[in-house]
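Collaborator request, handled under Task 6.
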Amino acid sequence: MMSRSRLALLFVMAIGMNAAPNIQVHGHRGARAMRPENTIPAFEYAIRAGVDVLEMDVAVTKDNVLVISHDPHLNPEICEGPAPNALIHSLTFEQVQKYDCGTLRNPRFPAQQP
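Structure tokens returned to the collaborator:
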């Protein structure tokens, strides 16, 4: 015999499953497995693939300009520039623009194309 608490849990789960709208597909950092993350090509690829939502993270530069970046620093695994691991909030937008964060392929995603 099923306990009351287990039955209540199943009931709540069943309500949640029936109330759930259609599943949404999110393009995490665009389509980072296929294109360099958080780049226009990654977002375009994700849109062409039919995602419902583009997911991206935003950082703020020293001069209060918003830039798209998952990390609070410029990740040397995917960015080349003057100072590896530079903190975005300590750089001006002009300094951030001296980094290339879209040409390097992420070694964790071998199918990624620039």
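The cover message to the collaborator said: "Strands lie at 26-28, 53-55, 58-60, 66-68. The chain has three helices and four strands. Please let us know whether this matches your experimental observations."
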